Protein: Adenylate/guanylate cyclase domain-containing protein
Organism: Arthrobacter jiangjiafuii
Amino acid sequence: MSEEPRDDAAAEQDAEAAPDPAPMTLSMPVVDPWARPAEETGRASADAEPNGDSTAIDRDDVRRLEAQLIGGPRTLKRREAAAEAGVSLLSARKLWRAMGFPNLDDDAVFFTEQDREALTTVIELVRDEQLTEEAAISIMRSIGQMTDRMVVWQIEALVEEMVVQRGIPDAQARKALVAALPDLIEPLEKTLVYAWKRQMNSAVQRLALRAEAGLASHDGSMSDDNPLPLARAVGFADLVSYTSLSRQMNEKTLAQMVQRFEHKCAEIISVGGGRLVKTIGDEVLFNAETPEAGAEISLALAKAFTEDDLLPAARVSLVWGRVLSRLGDIYGPTVNLASRLTSLAEPGTVLTDASTAAALRNNEKFVLIPHQPRNVRGFGEIHPVTLARGTGTGLILD
């Protein structure tokens, strides 16, 4: 790791010449859409509420909120931030890009003491060899991408709440939210840290206690040297006729339908001990540690949407196999096959393959109904099997 900031060109030459580049470190700036170059700040008050628009957000409110969020005034340029961290500007820029932030001009005063403290924290992890350069980049990319999506979600949820509860227009709700946020920052931050710790604990439990059970439930054909390291039950749930329905709905009704779908999926998957990997419009991708857990979640999803008066039925698929987990997503033939099976399933049913059916065959909780072989793109001939409820009541939701 370089200990002094250097000119970009020199740093780039060093990076090309060095066989073992030093670990990089990063800063964690907060992107501010209201930020202006120093020479323009004098015009802020004139731009605050053009033509007396009562819905325009007061920039003084924004600046006060910024001071609370990023820990004080911006006092450091990018070269100064790198210098105080003791790293080259090149290294800092690479990691800022990993966080998803745009490049900054040399003269832009962007960083605060809070940024410096966060930067130092990550630097020390790399210097102490608790993280490698690659791990640091990957972890900070995960933080940048996940928190960006989370913040957008939270802002929109709060705005929607104000529109519904107060009966005010969207633009006015956004202005009111800026004024209300200072009182929400601390409780939201505490909840975020709490949730992160609980999620990390759950991940540790899955890693330490459930992985062995998941592998044991397979037929033993998966060797430890498999390039896809994780054995998981992978499933999709896809709303039927979503495209045609969306054309008949206004934006508000469509948003309510998608939100109801996502919330119901998240609840069922959570109760079943699985993980909601991602949502893609009218479709969710989830996984679970064992075939049995995946089967229970799949059946519960199919049942829930069949019985929902406001949502269409769903096609659901489930495949047990190996996956690769990267950047919070999962990849591999197992995921691809589950996606293909979703399009073959009948509305309100769960479709699986012969291998997954074999893993569930001796469990009386499930009924397995084989079908004629089908040719599936990318997989050739497969033997689809409908998964249905056997004994027991399945997942119990509150």
